[in-house]
What we know:
Shape: globular
CATH topology of the domain at 25-236: TIM Barrel
Largest sheet: 9 strands, mixed
Number of strands: 9
Number of helices: 11
CATH superfamily of the domain at 25-236: Aldolase class I
Bound molecules: iron/sulfur cluster
Radius of gyration: 19 Å
CATH class of the domain at 25-236: Alpha Beta
Distance between the termini: 35 Å
Low-confidence stretches: none
Strand content: 5-15%
Mean pLDDT: 90
Helix content: 25-40%
Strand order of the largest sheet: 7-6-5-4-3-2-1-8-9
Structural class: alpha/beta
Amino acid sequence: MKGGRNVNNYENAPHCYFSVPVERRLIIEVTRKCNLHCSHCCSRSGPRGKDIPLQKLKEVVKKISPREIYISGGEPFLYPQITEFVEWLKKRNIYISIATNGTLVDKLEEVLPFVDKIQVSIDGLREDHDELRGKGAFDTVVNCFLKKFDKLRNTQTLRISCTLWKNETLEEEYIKSYLDFLENSIKPDEVVFNILIPVGRGSYLGKTIFLKELKIKSTVKKVASKNNNYKMKIVIHRDKPFDEKFQCPGGNKIFFYGEKGYSPCSWIYKLMPEFTNEDLKKSTEAFTSFLRTREKLGEFGCPAAAILYSNSPFRRDKLWRNSS
Ligand code: SF4
């Protein structure tokens, strides 16, 4: 992708909804099949979702040549050739992260040797996680999946992903109890706090929570700084204001592929389908041209967040420094 945007100075730049990689990262939704039917699922996955053929996945990887890949879904552990796929990626020396709901315990042993990082969702304490993901889900993750992971793990990083999704869980006291539970019982390498983005099934739950994005982040930061003896790393994306130097890494450092084609990032895939195309070049060129127009109009920051905050990609992302 020559002649693209200059996004080489990201190490010191603020994060968008992703930590921006130095080299290319591909986010790939290998399936929309899922054994759960979570009420906040941004990709509306469920038992009848479709898989992307393995041959197509390999073609996409060859085309993007990523240094890192993040495999998501749906539930990637349900993808019929998941082991074959990660083994193939490993041979190409690609850093592999895989996201899972942590309920398909039997598949873990097969997949784990090939991955570098496993991201398991725990969306709050037992009652709240189960309300979102189904009764018994929390115990399966904590008492079966993660116990097995502990026995099998070698050098793999364990990341817990938490989407806070209801008002009662946004308070300092709750967040502290949650972090204490992780630190004492799970001992992950890191925890990432995601915001419930109101797309897919999440659109029914998410709007009011999304608008509290900045408050949630400052609460998490406050808890983390008051309890600075946590060993796990606490990751909060979009935690600093953006300025004119911030350029969206979508279609330049970050690429997405899902059942409808390539898109510059997973949120743009869901919010601006006009940039999804089976032709990678068409997708990235159209998005780059859109970003240039946006900059000429004086708007910066994340276009996906601009839609979510202001209903238009040409309006304000709340984190841009001049936003009111
Ligand atoms: S649209 Fe750009 S800035 Fe926003 S989350 Fe996606 S990659 Fe990051």
